Known about the structure:
Radius of gyration: 19 Å
Strand content: under 5%
Number of strands: 0
Number of helices: 9
Largest sheet: none
Order of helices and strands: HHHHHHHHH
Structural class: mainly alpha
Distance between the termini: 38 Å
Helix content: over 70%
Amino acid sequence: xxxxxxRSATPRKGRTGRPRSVEADQAILRATRAALVDVGxxxxxxxxxxxxxxxxxxxxxxxxxxxxxxxxxxxxxLFDELxxxxxxxxxxxxxGVVLQFGALLARPExxxxxxxxxxxxxxxxxxxxxxxSAIVERQKRLVLLGRARAQARGExxxxxxxxxGARAAARTMDLIFDVIAGAVIHRTLVSGExxxxxxxxxxxxxxxxxxxxxLG
Length: 216
């Protein structure tokens, strides 16, 4: 599956010169994740990434202002691989994306890069905001898609009308995202346990039980 590139990895309007190379961008982001696994955040430099990717260091700086931006984008494109295939019902849709998410987090490149950038963001508000915009907000698309499908199937009630209804729906979507993402991240990165089919079924059953109460 081809990951979609983050908007920071696209040409700026009005910029002249040779067009950007998608292949070069992908090679740089792969090199960034590999370097994180091998040397860790503290020893990671733009020069290290450039050498691994086989490009000039100036090439990196034309695309990313600093290491923080580069690492966030390297993580973000991995999360963009997540999809929500229509499996026929809300329960199956949730189980499917939970298993995908667990498998993604089990990959050494994802685990190392995500933990490194989150740890660094605890003392860097700008980096934390980059994570929110480049990863968290973009992945909420899966929750919105799942809700729309479930409403179309009659599995979930429609949103209440008006601005109050829209605000309530947004709060619910944020909470659903936090619950699913939080549970999977804790399971894989904190507890170090697998997100397998059995856990996915148990989690989804518990989640849907709580969701039915929350939605009345």
